[in-house]
Every structure is written in structure tokens, then in C-alpha cells.
Amino acid sequence: MDTVAARRLLLxxxxxxxxxxxxxxxxxxxxELSAEGIxxxxxxxxxxxxxxxxxxxxxxxxxxxxxxTAEVAGRVLGVxxxxxxxxxxxxxxxxxxxxxxxxxxxxxxxxxTWRHDATWAPPGGETRVEVAARMRSVVEDLLADDSxxxxxxxxxxxxxxxxxxxxxxxxxxxxxxxxxxxxxxxAWVELTAMxxxxxxxxxxxxxxxGELVDAGPAQAGxxxxxxxx
Length: 229
Known about the structure:
Organism: Corynebacterium hansenii
Number of strands: 6
Protein name: Histidine phosphatase family protein
Order of helices and strands: EHHEHEHHHEHEE
Distance between the termini: 42 Å
GO molecular function, one term: hydrolase activity
Keywords: Hydrolase
Strand content: 15-25%
Structural class: alpha/beta
Helix content: 25-40%
InterPro entries: His_Pase_superF_clade-1, His_PPase_superfam, PG/BPGM_mutase_AS, PGM_Phosphatase
């Protein structure tokens, strides 16, 4: 059996934006952190600085709400932040910028379909399966880094995108992708990759929706069924 050290992956959602607080769909809109979101980023960065000194690389979505969250963590950890557009949130097409109520009025029933079917996309948007594929391509590139075994990589991204990546890495059937949802602002997912007895690399879930006890208003950053907010 391969004795290569485990690779640890932390997936961190960005801090709160005003769109999160008002239940407006962001998708790939380049929104900014709210005052509360900045405070959340500072709190989670302090936590990482105390408990996650093994982080050797930080890769972030290039959208500001994620990149700014990552930069706060990078300063605390002393690690430069790399930006990758493949880590962006789900492209939501005509839904972007609209509230849940507005979408439900103009496209009745479609949000429910989207929440429960990973192969369905909003008009002009992308499916959860497509999001998982582009997110996973980042991880596949990172696996080529010989310095990863025995250390941690931090990816800073978005709720819906992180949920899709988690399902993909764990080899969850597409019909069950939507079981991962509701990732709160600055909550994280912990995954570990270790060689299996057959020599293949397997991913194992350590935590989903991990967060600080004092992370701030619990409901403000809730995703809606793995939504791209």
C-alpha cells in the first residue's frame, strides 16, 4: 500500500455580502463583502492562524467577495493568495441579481427544480454538474504539486460551488449531489485524500459546514438548497 502522506483540503466560503443578507442571487456577479462579511473574514482568519498553521497554499475565486476573504486569511497565515476563475460561483444566467421572490414570480417552480436536480440549469446558466467539473479541475492541477502531501491547501470560494465540488470529490451519485447545501458564510468543508488499498486516491469527509461558534448572525448567509448566493 502506498505510504504517501495524506493531502488535506479546506474549502472556505466567503464572508457575507449585502446580497446574501437580502436573499438576492449573486452567481458570478462581482459583489463586495458587507461590514459583517469583513468581520467574519477577520474572525475566521484568526481561527486559521491559531489552528491551521499547516496551510501551504491558498487558492481563491477571482470574485472579490472570495478573494478579499482569502487575502485576510493569507495575511494572517503569511501565505500568498493565488486567484483562479474556475473557482467562481455558479453562473446563474437571467437569475443573477434577482431576489428569490422575483425569480419565483417570473419562473414559477424552477428554483425548486434547480434545488433538487443537479443536471438542470437556470436559463443561460450552468448545472451543478458543470460547476463540479470546473472546480474539480483546480484540485486535479493541485495534485501535481509534490509539496501537498502532509500539508493543507485552502480553497476560498462560494457556497454552491463548494457543495458541488464536495459531492464530486466524494464520488456521490449525481442524483444525490443536492444533499450538500446550506453552507454558511465563512463556514468550511474539510476533506482528506489518502491512497486506497488499490493504489487509487480516495477523498474522505472530515467536516461539512464547520464554523466558529461566534461566526455572526447564523441566518444571514444561508444558502438556499446549495444556491449560488
